[in-house]
Amino acid sequence: MKRLLAAFSALLLLLSLFSFGSCSEQTVTKSFFAMNTYCTVTVPAKNADAADEIIRRVNALEALLSVSREGSDIYRLNYSDGEQTPIDNETALLLKRALELNSLLPAFDFSLFRLSLLWGFFATPSVPDDADIKSALSHCGTDKLTVGDGFASLSGGAMLDLGAIAKGYAADEASKILLSHGVERALLNFGGNVFVLGTKQSGADYKVGIKKPYTEEILATLTGKDLFYVTSGSYERYFTEGGKNYCHIIDPKTGYPAESGLYSVTVVCEDGTLADVLSTAFFIMGAEASLDFINETHLCEAVFVTSGNEVIITDGLKDRFTLLSSDYALKD
Ligand code: FAD
Ligand code: MG
Question: Considering the domain boundaries, does residue 89 fall inside one?
């Protein structure tokens, strides 16, 4: 049986458990569909205009960065046949940041769109022939991208996909809007990219939930303010063929969906773009290599949920993490 869960319901890997507390402050939650996922913005009612500005900003970013929308910068670049293509300065800056992050973390490779198409993740998924995978892989590679000020070009048949970074960037931009409006407390959830601003009015921390794989239950909660929480997982957007699950995150070394013994990775840090990239890269790298990276760089905290039903957390989360399921064991 083949199955690909609908992306819009599937991407809510992180569940915000929010209430603004028992005090009298009125709140408003605005929900909208963007970047192929449900997004929510919760703010005090007096800051509703900030929420409206966020929605406009996210829609504008999608118009620039979507892989599937004809006329977006990324779409025009992907179908430019190697020609130099004019793009918005903001797209150019994000592509430059993506190139830097790809150098730091080669597992984050935003040039794999040809492979995602081959696997059918944007249509009807199925396992392709190995020869076709190898052929598609030979066209990929961020070295085929040149970015200038207001233009870019792609050679060798490579195609870009900012699906592992653009939601995080959008969350960063949304957080700036909240700050520019002087918003004291807010919760954003862009399909598994969560941002928590401030605390409840009572001063208590908000809780962010990590989903228990293959269920609608909550496995664990995290607390901490002014932080991005981003999850990448294998159990939300996948299909099954020949009794095996294939997820949408592709290992650039093989051209096949990543298999690193993880059900999910949640990254916590102060930079939404970075958190999005790290969660995808860590999912491919696996827990051990990711923990080495974190110990060397101190760029983030993280929670790894393994397919052996273990949970591994970094030291900085020890006082902010609560495991809620006895089906999983916290590994020392
Ligand atoms: P993440 O781990 O953050 O990202 C995984 C996604 O990144 C994959 O789905 C793939 O797209 C890409 N990817 C796979 N392997 C790698 C890798 N090794 N390195 C880097 N990236 C990789 N989905 C649709 O089906 N239709 C749409 O029209 C559509 N429009 C979108 C427009 C925008 C602006 C954005 C940001 C996303 C859009 N998406 C669309 C959704 C998108 O393709 C992914 O489903 C989504 O971004 C995955 O997010 P995630 O948090 O689940 O996983
Ligand atoms: Mg990501």
Answer: yes
243 CA → ligand 1 middle, Å: 24
Total domains in the fold of the chain? 1
Mutate to test the pocket of ligand 1, among 36, 66, 105 (most ligand atoms within 8 A of CB): 36
* pLDDT tens readout for residues 84-134: 999 999 999 999 999 999 999 999 999 999 999 999 998 899 999 999 999
Please give the angle made by the CA atoms of 74, 79 and 80, to the nearest 5 degrees: 95
Residue 135 lies in a domain: yes
Contact by Cβ (8 Å): 234, 245: yes
72 ligand 1 Cβ < 6 A: no
Domain assignment present for 327: no
What pLDDT shows up at residue 39? 95
Q: Are 121 and 4 in contact (CB under 8 A)?
A: yes
Decide if 271 is inside a domain: no
Residues 266-312 have pLDDT tens digits of 999 999 999 999 999 999 999 999 999 999 999 999 999 999 999 99
Q: Which residues place a Cβ less than 5 A from the ion ligand 2?
A: 164, 276, 279-280
Q: What's residue 332's pLDDT?
A: 76
Q: What is the CA radius of gyration of the chain?
A: 19
Span from the CA of 133 to the centroid of ligand 1 (angstroms): 19
Closest CA to 209 of 12, 38, 14, 19: 14
What b-and-e string marks burial along 116-127, b requiring 16 or more CB atoms within 10 Å of the CB? bbbbbbbeebeb
Range of the structural domain that residue 117 is part of? 65-154
